[in-house]
Amino acid sequence: MTTEMRKAGIDVVGDMVAWGAHFCLFYETREDLLDTLIEFFKSGLGREEYCLWVVAAPFTIEEATAALKAAVPDLGRHLADSRMEIGSASDWFLQGGTFDGKRVTDALYEKFARVSAKGYAGMRASADTTWLSKKDFWRHFCDYEDGLNEVIGNQSLALLCTYPLATCGAHEILDVVRTHQFVLARRHGNWDIVETAALKRAKAEIKGLNEELEQRVVERTNQLMLASEALREAQTQLAHVNRVATMGELSASIAHEVMQPIAATVTNAGAALRWLNAQPPNLERAREALGNTVKAGNRATDVIGRIRALIKKAPPLKDTLEINGAILEVIALTRGEILKNGVSVQTQLAEGLPLIQGDRVQLQQVILNLIINAVEAMSEVSEGARELLISTGKDASGGVLVAVRDSGPGLKPESFDRLFDAFYTTKPGGMGMGLSICRSIVEAHGGRIWASRSAGPGTALQFTLPMG
C-alpha cells in the first residue's frame, strides 16, 4: 500500500492525507459543505491530480461549478482538459432509479484506470449522500462503502464522503463511522475528528512496525560495523603475512645489508685498538676510527629497525610523512636483491612534495611490492639492460604521484584490467595477492593505483596519495 502523503486542504487533518484514504464528513450547513469541498478540490487541482465531484441536492452542478470557479480562476481550463469532472449523484449512483453498489464500484475503478493511464498524480473524489433513502438503500450503501476500503487501499486514490447531520440518526452515524477510516464533523463552525478503531489499530501496528524496523536497523548497523571491523582486521592480517613473506624472500639480501655495517663496525673497532696500542698512541686516528664505528653501528641499528617495522604486526597508524624518505629506505633494503639480479636503479624524486598522512609501514609495503615485482619481471629478460626507474612528483589534484617503471617484457593487454584483482597473477607459482593488497592500502589512504605501458619496453605501475 502506498504511503505518499497528499495535501487535503482541510486544516483539521493537518493538510496531509495518505493515498488510499477513505474518510467522511458530517456537516450541518450548506456553507460548511461548500467551504470544505472547495478547499479539497482546489488542493487536488494544484497538485496535478484528477478530481471528481459528485453533487447532490441542495447543490446543482451549476452552483458547484460557480463556487469552485471563484476559488480556482482557471477552472475552465481544468474542465476543458478533463482534469475536473462535476457530475450529479442521480447519474452516478441511481442509474435506472436503483442503487447497485457493484456497478458503482466498477465504474469508479474503471475511471481510476483511465486516469492512471493518462499520467495523473492520482485521483481524489467526493460525493454527497442527500439522495440516499434510508429505507430503500441504506444497508446496501453501507456494504458498498465498506467494500471501497478494499478497492482503494493500495491505489493512488483519496475519497471523501459527505453526510448531512440533520438526516442521520445514531444508528446511521455508527454505520458511517464503522465503514470509514476516520470521520470529520463540522458543527457550529468548529471541527471534530474521530478515528475509527480499525484506524487506531492500524496506527498502532505501524508504530510497532516502525519501532521493530528501527531496532532491526540498529542491529543490522551493529552487525555491519562488526563485519567491517572484522574485514579491516583480516586485511591487516593479510597485509602482515604478505610483508613477512616478502621479507622472507629477501632474507639473503637483507642479511647482506645488515652484515655490511656490522663488518664495518668490527673493522673500525680493530683499527681503533691498533692506533691506541701504537707507541706512542695515535689518539687522533683512534678517535676517527671509533667515530666510524659509531656510524656503522647506527647504520646497522637503522637497517634492523626498518626490518622490524616491516615485519612487526601493528595496527595501522596515520602519521605525517615525507614520501621520498620512505622510498629511499625501501630501496636500501632491496639493494642486495637488485644487485643480485643485475638491475640498475635510477631515482627521480621531486623536491618540495607535500607531506602526506598515512601509515609508513603500509605505504612502504606498497613500494616494496612494486620494486620486487619489477625486479622479478626483469629477471626474465636475457638481453638488454635491466633498468628500474622510481620517480615521484605532484599529481593533478596537488597530491603525490609515485611511479615504478621497469624494462621487463611488459604485460599482456588482458592483464591491465585484472592486475589488481585478488588471486590474479602473471607469475608462475604466484598467489596473486601482492598487488591486490597494494590496491587496498592505497585506496584506504584515499588514493588510487593503476598500471600503464611505458614509453619503451616494460610496465609502469603508478599510485597517487592525497596530501595530508
UniProtKB/TrEMBL annotation:
Residues 196-230 form a coiled coil. It comes from Bradyrhizobium vignae. Keywords: ATP-binding, Coiled coil, Kinase, Nucleotide-binding, Phosphoprotein, Transferase, Two-component regulatory system. It catalyses: ATP + protein L-histidine = ADP + protein N-phospho-L-histidine. SMART domains: HATPase_c. Residues 253-468 form the Histidine kinase domain. CDD domains: HisKA (cd00082). PANTHER family: PEROXIDE STRESS-ACTIVATED HISTIDINE KINASE MAK3, SENSOR HISTIDINE KINASE. It is an enzyme of class 2 (transferase). This is histidine kinase. Its EC number is 2.7.13.3. The keyword Cytoplasm does not apply. InterPro entries: HATPase_C_sf, HATPase_dom, His_kinase_dom, HisK_dim/P_dom, HisK_dim/P_sf, MEDS_domain, Sig_transdc_His_kin-like_C.
